[in-house]
Design brief:
By secondary structure, the protein is α+β, with helices and mostly antiparallel strands. It has 2 domains: 57 residues, no CATH class; 102 residues, VSR Endonuclease (Endonuclease, Chain A, 3-Layer(aba) Sandwich). 54% of the residues lie in helices and 15% in strands. Strands 1-2-3-4 form a 4-stranded mixed β-sheet, sandwiched between helices. It is elongated. The mean pLDDT is 84.
């Protein structure tokens, strides 16, 4: 683990935060490290360059496990809208979901170009949404193009759905 921590610290001195987060996500996804262990390991490097930048990325309030650049981009849309951060990569109703707001029962999936284009993949997406809906959750999907090029629309839609779900919850 020491070699990986050292490598991430070195990268933290020159990578922008989005790319650094991507590197941490990739290490986590590959099972090389988890963010909490990385945070503890950084204690031994307190005076090294890059520690503060890397700690900012793995801080529990800001780090969210994601699988793709599209998901990281979606989190920036959520942040810029001033919305609460969702849980990420949670198992729900037998499926791993991209984003989940448990207090609202909202599940958001971001559909990248690679995993959501064939009829079989789209049929599975429909099954996922139907399963979540049957369990009392609200499923919502955004395409790659919407997240990337229509962030204002995504923010407005999220706000409207969240407001409706809050009213329903508080009623």
């Amino acid at each position: 683990m020491t070699g990986l921590v050292r490598t991430l610290l070195d990268q933290a001195t020159f990578l922008d935060p989005a790319l650094l987060e991507r590197a941490v996500n990739e290490a986590d996804r590959c099972g090389l490290i988890d963010p909490e262990a990385l945070s503890h390991a950084l204690d031994a490097y307190s005076c090294q360059p890059g520690v503060a930048r890397l700690r900012d990325v793995v801080d529990r309030r800001t780090f969210r496990l994601t699988d793709s650049e599209l998901e990281r981009r979606f989190l920036r849309v959520v942040e810029r809208a001033g919305m609460p951060f969702p849980q990420t990569q949670q198992q729900l109703n037998g499926f791993r979901v991209d984003f989940y707001w448990p207090d609202l029962g909202l599940v958001v999936e971001t559909d990248g170009l690679h995993y959501h284009r064939t009829p079989a993949q789209q049929a599975r997406d429909h099954l996922r949404d139907q399963t979540h809906l049957a369990a009392g959750l609200t499923p919502l999907r955004f395409t790659h193009a919407q997240v990337r090029y229509e962030a204002q629309y995504v923010r407005a839609t999220l706000r409207a759905v969240m407001q409706r779900l809050r009213l329903k919850r508080d009623a």
